[in-house]
């Protein structure tokens, strides 16, 4: 879906260096060039001011000081150019602070407002819609997540930005197929009978489309394996869960979405120690991004359910209690 690697497209665009999820890794880790109007809107920002904000926010959130992180965002918003960080970075970290506070709807609203300002042709629009897929899913809103996927594809097609290597529409289609496969397979788990089988078919078609596009690129092995692992988990086939999960290079993967789904499959296959090691790897990650809190929340909920508490919504428990019904 949308994890760290593709979300780097947001931060590294800002630094003009740049590369959101395992679905678009390797040669498709894009360096997006902002549209001219968007570039003008951020022209006053300097790399030093951007990097200073990144460093300060990262330190505050890693020590769980949400109040300080919010204050950093507010100070950045009130700073005058040229010391002011770029508008996209301010919006991104404003959303990130709300995500770390557990307010995923507010995080999505902030990203939506930024997209409205920069327009659909900007790289920000593509990257932010991509991130909003996970933010909608975090609230159990699978329909909203599919809508964000459609919007991501729409703005990707309209985009005037270019990846550092590869083709923009290849990146767009990779992410479209990966997200559709994952979301439709999750939705299928909430259904029964013929309707369930129909959605499994839709999900499998999207998975096959992803593999057909990704496999020839030669750099998407982890992405393919993660999808295979989740499909095997949903099918309840331990041997396939284990085989797919073991194809993921956990030691070199810092994509929290990849890692969450990998540990899910390992747990389902009965490899509890291996799954626990992956969860420890996730918790040890030192990066800060808008999506990490989503997967940490799901891990906590899954662990609580394993201890006998009421299951809460997650890819493991798609019929669990939605956030709106939580106490």
* Name of the top-level CATH class: Mainly Alpha
Question: What is CATH's topology name?
Answer: Serine Threonine Protein Phosphatase 5, Tetratricopeptide repeat
What percent strand? under 5%
Poorly predicted segments: 6-22, 24-41
Radius of gyration: 19 Å
Secondary-structure-based class equals mainly alpha
Helix content: 55-70%
Instruction: Name the overall outline.
Output: globular
User: What is the quaternary state of this protein?
Assistant: single chain
Order of helices and strands: HHHHHHHHHHHHHHH
What is the makeup of the main sheet? none
CATH architecture group name:
Alpha Horseshoe
Topology of this structure?
Blueprint: H1 4-14, H2 36-41, H3 47-62, H4 66-78, H5 87-100, H6 104-118, H7 123-138, H8 142-158, H9 168-188, H10 193-214, H11 221-235, H12 238-245, H13 256-268, H14 272-284, H15 292-306
For this entry, give a set of tags.
mainly alpha; Serine Threonine Protein Phosphatase 5, Tetratricopeptide repeat
How is this structure best described in words?
It is a single chain. The protein is mainly alpha-helical. It has one domain (4-325): Serine Threonine Protein Phosphatase 5, Tetratricopeptide repeat (Alpha Horseshoe), CATH 1.25.40. It contains 15 helices and no strands. It has helices spanning 4-14, 36-41, 47-62, 66-78, 87-100, 104-118, 123-138, 142-158, 168-188, 193-214, 221-235, 238-245, 256-268, 272-284, 292-306. It starts with a helix and ends in a 21-residue tail after the last helix.
């Amino acid at each position: 879906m949308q994890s760290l690697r593709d979300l780097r497209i947001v931060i590294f665009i800002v630094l003009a260096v740049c590369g959101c999820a395992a679905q678009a890794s390797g040669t498709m880790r894009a360096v997006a060039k902002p549209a001219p109007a968007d570039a003008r809107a951020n022209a006053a920002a300097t790399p030093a001011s951007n990097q200073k904000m990144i460093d300060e926010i990262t330190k505050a959130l890693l020590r769980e000081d949400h109040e300080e992180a919010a204050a950093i965002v507010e100070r950045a918003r009130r700073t005058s150019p040229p010391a002011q960080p770029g508008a996209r970075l301010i919006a991104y970290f404003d959303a990130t602070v709300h995500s770390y506070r557990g307010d995923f709807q507010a995080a999505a609203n902030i990203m939506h407002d930024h997209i409205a300002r920069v327009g659909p042709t900007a790289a920000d629009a593509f990257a932010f819609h991509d991130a909003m897929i996970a933010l909608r899913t975090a609230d159990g809103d699978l329909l909203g997540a599919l809508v964000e996927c459609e919007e991501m594809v729409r703005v990707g097609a309209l985009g005037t930005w270019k990846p550092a290597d590869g083709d923009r529409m290849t990146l767009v289609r990779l992410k479209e197929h990966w997200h559709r496969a994952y979301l439709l397979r999750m939705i299928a788990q909430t259904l029964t009978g013929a309707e369930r089988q129909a959605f499994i078919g839709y999900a499998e078609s999207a998975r096959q489309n992803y593999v057909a596009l990704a496999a020839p690129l030669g750099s998407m092995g982890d992405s393919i394996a993660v999808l295979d692992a989740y499909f095997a988990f949903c099918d309840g086939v331990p041997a396939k869960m284990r085989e797919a999960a073991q194809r993921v290079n956990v030691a070199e993967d810092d994509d929290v979405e990849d890692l969450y789904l990998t540990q899910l499959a390992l747990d389902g296959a009965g490899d509890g120690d291996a799954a626990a090691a992956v969860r420890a790897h996730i918790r040890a990650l030192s990066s800060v991004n808008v999506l990490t809190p989503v997967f940490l929340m799901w891990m906590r909920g899954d662990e609580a359910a394993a201890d006998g508490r009421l299951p809460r919504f997650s890819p493991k428990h798609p019929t669990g209690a939605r956030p709106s019904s939580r106490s």
